[in-house]
Amino acid sequence: MNIQPVILSGGAGTRLWPLSREQYPKQLLAFQGEHTLLQQTVRRLDGLSTLVGQVAEPIVVCNEQHRFMVAEQLRAIGHPPAAILLEPVGRNTAPALTVAALASLKQGDDPVLLVMPADHVIADAPAYHAAVKTAADLAQQGALVTFGIVPTAPETGFGYIRKGAPVADEVTQSSALSPQSYLLDAFVEKPDAPTAAAYVASDEYLWNSGMFVMRASVWIEQLTRLQPAMLAACREALEKADADLDFCRLNADAFKACPSDSIDYAVMEKLGGVAEAGNPQPAVAVVALDAGWSDLGAWSAIWEVGEACANGNVSKGDVLSHDCRNSLLYSEHRLVAGIGLDDVLVVETADAVMVAHRDRAQDVKKIVEQLKASGRSECLVHRQVFRPWGSYEGVDAGPRFQVKRIVVKPGAALSLQMHHHRAEHWIVVTGTARVTCGDKEFLLSENQSTYIPIGEKHRLENPGAVPLEIIEVQSGGYLGEDDIVRFEDRYGRKGSDLDKK
Predict the structure, then answer these.
(1) Within 13 A of 360's CA, how many CA atoms are on the CB side?
(2) How confident is the model over 77-91, as pLDDT tens digits?
(3) Which pTM does this prediction carry?
(4) β-strands 83-87, 144-149: how paired?
């Protein structure tokens, strides 16, 4: 069996603000240990081949703004992707899966697609692998399969799946499959608390995980019947895609014309339960998964999966507490001290502090909406902004000046560029800098500096083997990141690209 993992990495994670931002969302962050959620998702595949056969490197579908971070994170764990497909706009999960399915079929095979969001946590990898084996066996025989999470509480923040009869021999042509696979009877919307309690008590419902398994050709066949406009738009977006370094940049006009819909709504809900008269359809199944799953959909979920002290508190970073219970204290930069807190979430970053009752964790997105309405940058980026060459961080700013800390990775270089409205003064803190300024090229070592006049072509490079750190002082009448004319860039960025530095 040939398994093609498909990782959907297009989410924004607004409920995990202020740590998760639009240009640095939760799947690219590490909440537990050293690996990010994206890296954990890929590493979860390690060892799966012993059960199912060949497991390819993943196809990743992501926002084009995240492409360099996604590529770098996969390189760092030794899992170069089979492809990174760049979405010019978000169109939900069904189009993302469709372009991945079409891309896999172009390779001349018809693999079983293992579709995984990039931002889930699964604690028990062996149990997950066993569930994938059951689902893949079903999918190999033509079924569309989803995973239903065995509920641990009457959760109102998840959709539910109603189980049908256990998978029968005439559907699977096998009697050896796990009894934890069922025909899928129906998808159910997020319930209120009494309804959720009734669901859990009945033992007839599972949480909807958003993970799927099916053959690529079976997915395309169902889109042909159920969502022809979506399929046509995705096919055109892929056929007209541009190669951009190691990325596949989907055609913007075609993809923007694609209907936006989830995998559930676009196909799965139309196939579950009783078949439509005259419309033959494949089996739709759900595999029960009991493996310590969480979608980390809010800060309350971070508290739930965290390692709590005797008083139920979960802490990370420089934290002190006194007489606190069942609270999350999360510090990125400064000392956070909590006194007499019960069921409270406190999250500190360099430029924002969020405090909420644990029962109101879902409402964090309301603050993000206010930030967007006000045009504030805190919903988009952190003070530290990552670029393919490294990162920069705002240190101070005022009228006509701005100070940044810039870190350039070994062997990396900023674009050859020019500014119309600002001059720059660079001071090397650590490492060695190769500087291009006008017609001159020269090296700077620690404690040396140089000046870049307004309108002068310039470039900063790191020719060394250790990170280059500089302090940049900007001065001028306008200091926005869009004041740039880019002449050359080894990362393929154009002047209109959102990666401005």
Answers:
(1) 11
(2) 999 999 999 999 999
(3) 0.89
(4) unpaired
